Amino acid sequence: MKINELIKKLFKKQIGLDLTNPEHLKIVKKAYGSYYVFRNIYNKMYDYYKGDTDAIKKYLFVTERSNLKTSANFIKKFIKEEVAYTLGNDITYESRSDNENVIKDIEYYTAHWDELHDTNLMKYLLIFTKVYELYYIDDNADFCSKIIKPTEGYAYYDESSKKVLFFIHSFKNDFDPTISYIDVYTESYIYHFDSKFNQIKEPTVNIFGEVPVTVGDLTEEGADDSLYKDIKGLQDAFETNLSDVGNEISDFRNAYLVFKNSSVENDDLPKMKKLGILQLPGERADAEWLIKNINDTFIQNTLDRYEDTMYQLACHINHNEKLQSNLSGITLRSRLIVLENKCNLQIKAHKNMVKNRLRFLFKYLDLKKDKKYDYKDVKALYTPNIPSDDLATAQMLAQVPTGTISKDTAMGLFSFINNKVAEAEKVKKELEEEWDLMNRGGFGDLNE
Predict the structure, then answer these.
(1) Quick check: pTM over 0.90?
(2) pLDDT digit string (tens) for 157-193?
(3) How far is CA 50 from CA 71, 292, 314, in A?
(4) CA 19, 25, 31, 35: dihedral to nearest 10 degrees?
(5) How far is CA 212 from CA 116, 256, 331, 358, in A?
(6) CA-to-CA distance for 123 and 429, rounded, in angstroms?
(7) Distance (Å, whole) CA 299 – CA 304
């Protein structure tokens, strides 16, 4: 019986997974086998992000010649740019019911998180097109999250409901990397095994009542619709040709000096090299360097074509190109329209993860703090870190009739305002202070 049929049978009977049962453990072992197969693909994708490309690893070695390897990592460059565009500004939250307490609690109970958490989450999402976010409660009873790369974990979930049925986390010992462990998360317990699925300690109770993992998917096609898949061949070709050009230049040091109608004694060569003078016998004697004639235009055109194609496939623009000095913000924004559209799709994938994160955070607040919130009441707001013409926005709002656009919406149109709720509170506080100052006579007698 296939693994998905076994899982459906268990959950249909509402038995769930009990990994002390050998039959149930066999199901997890089969899923672990699938993880092992996919891990090889994801490791390759991660290698390219780190710059360990096939072009560098398998560069052809030529005996007695220059063998420099020149790396130019466009995949990392593009991914870092996209992360900066999408999450260069912090995520803010808005309550659909104008509940200010829920926004304050989200910020307070995640204030101890790493500031780079969301950017790293997006980075791995773009590298692998899949990433996992694991939730747990630490020793200080705080709600925490850990990013699990698909090279380290595997979630088995129901295709129709997208509900995670169990999650496998494979990790190494902090002090001895040769030792590996496996944690398996189910609805009720967290089971702890060694690398051979021998239980090493008692299961831990899972207080969330469901597998505490969010699965992030950038695209339905997975690795087949990734930046790695799109430009891997171009990346290899560019690095190979760039390395070849560098080695051709270095090999100029090995050019040969040809003597015509003359001969030189070996003992005279060091003296000639030191003095920089050659004394040749006879009028017909001559000497010249024998070197390669390299068509640098052809080489440069080839490299430029590779680079331009990579930029096009990645939907990026080359910021090193010279631009006119009087370009407006709108003009700059229009050059980024394709990249902005691509990043908007990436934001939606990241937002799906944030929604489920809030759902688990509110479960934690309900269990530990007796606070009840509905995650559907909260809207995550992303402010892309791209050029924006705030002057044009201010002029547009000044011409809009009063009552057409709310102050809250208008405030969110400015690129320098990342938190509308906090900004509105600041404005309210300033107005109250000014009104209080006027009432106390700070601006003189208003009746005069």
Answers:
(1) no
(2) 877 777 898 999 999 988 888 899 999 999 999 999 9
(3) 11, 35, 18
(4) 80
(5) 21, 69, 45, 12
(6) 38
(7) 9
